[in-house]
C-alpha cells in the first residue's frame, strides 16, 4: 500500500467515486450568487467531487479542477446543502456555511474532507466530523497579514474618528472640533489571543509606538519576548489597556468572554477592536458599556449573527465603526486562502494528512512515508486477529507491542494504533475507521488498546523490527493462536523488503506474506503433509502464493500458514480438515 493511500486509509475508494455534479457545469443565476447545478457531457467521471459552497478565488478553483469535479453552488440553504452532500467527497466553505451534524449524517459516509477557507472553524461541527471520520482542514496562514492590517486600520480609524468624520462631511458638515481624536503613541494595546494574527497586530502596533501586552494561555513567552511583548493575565490586560484588540477563537471558554463583568474591569474610556469572532463579545453588554462610557469606542468587523439585523444597536451606535467581515478581504489574501485550502483538500483526497488538519493528530509526511509498510502490517494483523475470535463477547482489551532499536521519542505509533483499530473493527462492523476517528470509535465500542515498546537488536535504519497484537479474554476459532498457559490470541508480524509478513501465530513461528488471504492448519508434524494440502488446493484451482510451516519440535505439533489468491469454498476447507493428522483449520480473509 502506498504511503498516500494508507493514511487511515484516509480516503479509500469511496473518496474516488464520482457524483452527478462536476466542474464542467452550466451556471444558473440564483439571487446574488451563482448556482452551477447542471452537469454537461464534458464532466469528467472517475474523479472525486468537491462542492464549493462560497466564493473561492480562481487560482484555488483551477487547482481543484485538475484532480476533481468542482461543483460551485453558492448561497445554498441548509436544506439544499443537506440534499446535495451525499454526492460529494469534499466540501469547501467560508464562514457563512454551517456544516452541522445533520450535514455529516446526510453524507452517508461519502464526505471525506471539509475545507474551511480561513482560520476559524466554529461553523463546522468538529465532533460530528470526527465521529464519521471526516477530516477538517483550514487555511490559517494566507490571510494572517490581511486580518492584522485590518485590525490596525480599525484601531487607527477609532483613534482619529475617521468613519464618523467622513460620514459628517458627506452629510455636508464641517465639524473639526467634534472629531478630535487621541494619539496611539505611548498608549497600551492589549492583544487578546497572541497567535498568528495577534502577533502580527502586536508587531505593527509596536511600530506605531504603542506599548503592547498580550493575554493568551497557550502563547510562547519566549516568542512574545522576542517581539517585545509582555504576557499578562486576562484581568491585568483589561485593567491596563487603552486599546484592546481581539484575536481569540470562539470556543465554549471564550463565548461571550467580554461581558458586563469583564467591561467593569476595564480602564474607563477603553477602545475595543474585534476582527476575530463576533461571539466572543456579549453584544448587549457592549452596548451598555458604550452608553455608560466604560468603552469609549468600538470597531467591529464580526458579529454574533452575520449579517446583523438592520436595527442592531451596535451597528447603529454613534461610537461604533463597523465593517462587513472584511478581515481577510484583500485580493492577495483571497487568492492565497484559495490556493492554501485547495492544496489541503487535494492532498486529503489523495490520502495525505494536511499540515492544517484540525481534528487529527499531526503526523509528519516523512513519518507517514517511512511507516507505510508497517501501517499495512498493523491493519492486517488487526484483521487477522479479530477473525480468530469466536463467541459473542467481542474484543475489549488489546495490547500492542512494538520492537524497535530506536529511542522512544523517535517512534510515532499513533498511525499504527489507528490502523490496528481499523483492522479490528471494520471487518465486524459497518464503521469506516481512519486516523481521524480511530480513538473515538474505539472508545465508543469499549475497545481498550494499550501499547508497549521493547528494545530490539535491529538497525535504527528501520523504524520497527516487529509488531505483536494480543487480544485478551476471548475464545479462539483456532486454538493454536493462543500460546500454551495463556488466554490471549497472539499474532506477530514484520516487514520484509517493504512487504508485511505474518511471523508468529500463538507459539508457532511462521513466515507468510500478507498479500492475499490465509489458511491456517494445525497438524501433527509428519512427512507428506505439505503435498497433501497442496494437492487438495490444486484440484480446486486455488493458487498458493506462500506456504510456511512452524513447529514446536519434530514429530509433534505444527502450524501450516498458506497464502492463497482466492477464497476456498466450505467444501474445500472440509476436505482439508478431513486429511488425517490435521487437527484444526481456519480461513482468514484479508
TrEMBL record:
It is an enzyme of class 1 (oxidoreductase). Residues 518-590 form the ACT domain. It comes from the Eukaryota. Pfam families: 2-Hacid_dh, 2-Hacid_dh_C, ACT, PGDH_inter. Its EC number is 1.1.1.95. Gene3D superfamilies: 3.30.70.260, D-3-phosphoglycerate dehydrogenase, domain 3, NAD(P)-binding Rossmann-like Domain. It catalyses: (2R)-3-phosphoglycerate + NAD(+) = 3-phosphooxypyruvate + NADH + H(+). Pathway: Amino-acid biosynthesis; L-serine biosynthesis; L-serine from 3-phospho-D-glycerate: step 1/3. InterPro entries: ACT-like_dom_sf, ACT_dom, ASB_dom_sf, D-isomer_2_OHA_DH_cat_dom, D-isomer_DH_CS, D-isomer_DH_CS1, D-isomer_DH_NAD-bd, NAD(P)-bd_dom_sf. The keyword Cytoplasm does not apply. Coiled coil: none annotated. Signal peptide: none annotated. Keywords: Acetylation, Amino-acid biosynthesis, NAD, Oxidoreductase, Phosphoprotein, Serine biosynthesis. Belongs to the D-isomer specific 2-hydroxyacid dehydrogenase family. Homotetramer. NCBIfam families: PGDH. This is D-3-phosphoglycerate dehydrogenase. It comes from Sphagnum jensenii.
Amino acid at each position: 500500500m502506498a504511503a498516500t493511500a494508507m493514511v487511515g486509509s484516509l480516503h479509500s475508494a469511496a473518496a474516488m467515486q464520482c457524483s452527478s455534479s462536476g466542474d464542467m457545469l452550466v451556471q444558473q443565476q440564483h439571487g446574488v450568487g451563482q448556482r452551477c447545478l447542471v452537469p454537461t457531457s464534458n464532466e469528467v467521471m472517475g474523479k472525486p467531487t468537491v462542492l464549493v459552497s462560497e466564493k473561492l478565488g480562481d487560482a484555488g478553483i483551477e487547482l481543484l479542477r485538475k484532480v476533481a469535479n468542482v461543483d460551485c453552488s453558492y448561497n445554498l440553504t441548509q436544506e439544499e446543502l443537506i440534499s446535495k452532500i451525499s454526492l460529494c467527497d469534499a466540501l469547501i466553505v467560508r464562514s457563512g456555511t454551517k456544516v452541522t451534524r445533520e450535514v455529516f449524517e446526510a453524507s452517508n459516509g461519502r464526505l471525506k474532507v471539509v475545507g474551511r477557507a480561513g482560520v476559524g472553524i466554529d461553523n463546522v461541527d468538529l465532533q460530528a466530523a470526527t465521529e464519521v471520520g471526516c477530516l477538517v482542514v483550514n487555511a490559517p496562514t494566507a490571510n494572517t497579514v490581511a486580518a492584522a492590517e485590518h485590525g490596525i486600520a480599525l484601531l487607527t480609524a477609532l483613534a482619529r474618528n475617521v468613519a464618523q468624520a467622513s460620514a459628517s462631511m458627506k452629510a455636508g458638515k464641517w465639524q473639526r472640533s467634534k472629531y478630535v481624536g487621541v494619539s496611539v503613541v505611548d498608549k497600551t494595546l492589549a492583544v487578546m489571543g497572541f497567535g498568528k494574527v495577534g502577533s502580527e497586530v502586536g508587531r505593527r502596533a509596536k511600530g506605531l509606538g504603542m506599548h503592547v501586552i498580550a493575554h493568551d494561555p497557550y502563547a510562547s513567552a519566549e516568542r512574545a519576548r522576542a517581539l517585545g511583548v509582555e504576557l499578562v493575565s486576562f484581568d491585568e490586560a483589561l485593567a491596563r489597556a487603552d486599546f484592546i484588540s481581539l484575536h481569540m477563537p470562539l470556543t465554549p471558554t471564550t463565548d461571550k468572554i467580554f461581558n458586563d463583568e469583564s467591561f467593569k474591569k476595564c480602564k474607563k474610556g477603553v477602545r475595543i477592536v474585534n476582527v476575530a469572532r463576533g461571539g466572543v463579545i456579549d453584544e448587549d453588554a457592549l452596548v451598555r458599556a458604550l452608553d455608560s462610557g466604560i468603552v469609549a469606542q468600538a470597531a467591529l468587523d464580526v458579529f454574533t449573527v452575520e449579517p446583523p439585523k438592520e436595527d442592531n444597536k451596535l451597528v447603529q451606535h454613534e461610537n461604533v465603526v463597523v465593517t462587513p467581515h472584511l478581515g481577510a478581504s484583500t485580493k492577495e489574501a483571497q487568492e492565497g486562502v484559495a490556493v492554501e485550502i485547495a492544496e489541503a483538500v487535494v492532498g486529503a483526497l489523495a490520502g495525505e494528512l494536511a499540515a492544517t488538519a484540525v481534528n487529527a493528530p499531526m503526523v509528519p509526511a516523512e513519518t507517514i512515508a517511512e511507516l507505510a509498510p508497517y501501517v499495512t502490517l498493523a491493519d492486517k494483523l488487526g484483521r487477522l486477529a479479530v477473525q480468530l475470535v469466536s463467541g459473542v463477547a467481542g474484543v475489549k482489551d488489546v495490547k500492542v507491542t512494538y520492537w524497535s532499536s530506536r529511542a522512544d521519542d523517535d517512534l510515532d505509533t499513533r498511525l499504527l494504533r489507528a490502523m490496528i483499530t481499523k483492522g479490528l473493527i471494520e471487518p465486524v462492523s459497518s464503521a469506516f475507521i481512519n486516523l481521524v476517528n480511530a480513538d473515538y470509535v474505539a472508545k465508543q465500542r469499549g475497545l481498550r488498546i494499550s501499547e508497549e515498546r521493547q528494545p530490539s537488536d535491529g538497525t535504527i535504519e528501520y523504524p520497527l523490527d516487529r509488531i505483536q497484537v494480543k487480544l485478551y479474554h476471548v475464545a479462539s476459532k483456532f486454538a493454536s493462536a493462543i500460546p500454551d498457559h495463556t488466554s490471549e490470541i497472539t499474532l506477530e508480524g514484520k516487514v520484509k523488503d517493504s512487504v508485511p509478513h505474518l511471523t508468529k501465530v500463538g507459539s508457532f513461528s511462521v513466515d507468510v506474506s500478507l498479500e492475499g488471504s490465509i489458511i491456517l492448519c494445525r497438524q501433527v508434524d509428519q512427512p507428506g503433509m505439505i503435498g497433501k494440502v497442496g494437492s487438495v488446493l490444486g484440484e480446486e484451482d486455488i493458487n498458493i502464493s506462500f506456504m510456511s510451516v512452524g513447529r514446536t519440535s519434530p514429530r509433534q505439533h505444527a502450524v501450516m500458514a498458506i497464502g492463497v489468491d482466492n477464497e476456498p469454498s466450505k467444501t474445500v476447507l472440509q476436505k482439508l480438515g478431513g486429511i488425517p493428522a490435521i487437527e484444526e483449520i481456519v480461513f482468514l480473509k484479508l
